[in-house]
Amino acid sequence: MRRLFPIVLCLIPLCGAQQNVNTPPQGDTFKFETKLNVVLVPVLVRDSHGNAVGTLKKEDFQVFDKDKLQTVTGFTIQKRATVSTSVEETRKSAPTAAAAPSPVVVPERFIVFLFDDLNLNTSDLVQAKKASTQMLFDSLGATDMVAILSTSGHTNSGITRDRTKLSEAIASLREQRIYRPLAKGCPDVSYYQADLILNKGDGTALGTATQEAIDCAHLDPHMRDTAERMARSAAQQALSMGEQGTRVDLNVIKVIVKTMATLPGQHSLILISPGFLSVTSEALTAKSEIMDMAAQANVTISALDARGLYVTMMDASESSVGGPRTMQNKAQYHADAMSTNEDVMAELADGTGGTYFHNSNDLTEGIRKLTLAPEYLYLLEFTPQDTKQDGSYHRLKVKVDQDGLKLQARHGYFALKASKKKS
């Protein structure tokens, strides 16, 4: 948790200073309210032209929890002001050393760009930095307040309208391999493969790592027990490192959402990442908490897959030692991991009314789209009925009683067992 402190210290004082200039009405200030057993489901509805629809009523929606129809007890339509400022207006409003003091501009949006430098590699980070720097002058309005942060805590611009300061923060971003191995191991076990071995009991994944240990350590084939111990040890290290990295990523997102809840106006968190795995019950719980907090605080989380239009084949630096079967299995784990890494970003975006931009190399256009919040967002609320609070993942499905509409909604939530719920 120590790495989260710089983010909190950055957001709270600077935003507090801004609110002292123009204190918003009390009704605009968010207050957390804990409601036992209540599930919040943000729903974004678009028509055939991609425009957000804001004319639906509570009776138009149906919510299913593990395929069981639930009663919608709460219904809210969040209407968001459209922020449209020309590039010329934005540049004119940006503070400069030579310009005379300008009138105080009341912020309408607070946007945090969170770069996942714990998972981004150098090449993807270079492209993301280039696109983000362009965004500062092409996509942001005069009333936008922005922060550039990184999940490692190494980069922190504070909340500002100063484009120069924001550009410098983007330029300072670097790949951080805190929770990734610095070199290939023997055997080389990924977080995804480690999860298969230790959490899912996948014999093929263990056998693949064992055979790789024999090959890379040049062991006698009869020393399979030794090779298996090496495989399990490597898997444990990869699992521990991967879980800690995911824990930090989700905790940083949670802290940012909680802090943004105290600010007036619109709130947008834009995650720029190659994605990461979320396989533990702790991670699933953290995701649910983030989406609950975001729904209550009217925070939209959008995400950009910084890998662009990626290929799932391993390159030479990722190839492993071994025979055809080992190589084939490792290639499959690599491909599956790259696909699964998208799940957290997609779920956070869908579950908060945000946008998930992926499978495109036009990152500049992607970031532009992510800065545009939908005009309308529905917030449905229900208390689970006829469903067991059994500590499992509850998949949600939302339907609307009109044709030709496309829905984007929360995928599900992780329900703690009754004895472990927070009061």
Walk me through what this model shows.
The chain is globular and about 70 Å long. Helix 1 packs parallel to helix 7. A five-stranded parallel β-sheet has the order 6-5-7-8-9. The protein has helices at 5-21, 87-93, 122-138, 163-171, 191-198, 203-216, 224-260, 281-297, 324-340, 342-350, 363-370, and strands spanning 39-46, 61-65, 68-70, 72-79, 109-115, 144-150, 266-273, 299-305, 356-357, 376-382, 393-400, 406-409, 412-414. The protein is built from eleven helices and 13 strands. The protein has two domains: 40-80 and 383-423, no CATH class; 106-373, no CATH class. It is 38% helix and 18% strand. Residues 1-9, 12-35 and 84-99 have low confidence and may be disordered. By secondary structure, it is of the alpha/beta class.
Sheet with the most strands: spatial strand order: 6-5-7-8-9
Structural class given helices, strands, pairing?
Answer: alpha/beta
Per the principal axes of the C-alpha atoms, what is the gross shape?
Answer: globular
Mean pLDDT: 84
Helix content range: 25-40%
The radius of gyration is 23 Å
Oligomer: single chain
Q: How many strands appear in the DSSP assignment?
A: 13
* N-to-C order of helices and strands: HEEEEHEHEHHHHEHEHHEHEEEE
How large is the count of helical segments? 11
Weakly predicted, low-confidence segments: 1-9, 12-35, 84-99
Tell me the number of structural domains.
2
